[in-house]
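Per reviewer request, we include the raw input and output of the structure prediction for the construct analysed in the revised manuscript.
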Amino acid sequence: MDSTSYSYHLLLLSQAAVISLLLCASMATTSRAQPHPYETLTSKQMAIIANSAITVHNRGRRLHLLSLIGALNGSRQTIDNIYGFVMYRVVVLLSEWHDGEYSTGYFLAELAFMVYDGANRIISEKYPVAADIIGRNVEYRLIWRI
């Protein structure tokens, strides 16, 4: 793939982050007197939500984050590590956002950048020159799209 294709795929990942935000936010509508909804989720339920949240529908195609990372030649261990890290950060960020520590805009920007950064790390290992171009190009676009 050339750098344009990488840029397109990374922007799809940022859209996946927005979908994650919407799904997580829909679970966070209870009052503060009650436990946060994600605190009662089992790991299996979280996995189902995560898999749903990072499935992107764009131009009539469905694209899954793990499939995309696999296509970018990430090792299975790297994929698992980034996937676990992203979901851990979603829970932490959602907690801080729900408690009023972050604005919704900051939360969304942080979440989108996190997904972008995870994919970019894999690209950096295999394609350092393309990653440098993407880092300057996509990051700028990501900031202005949010």
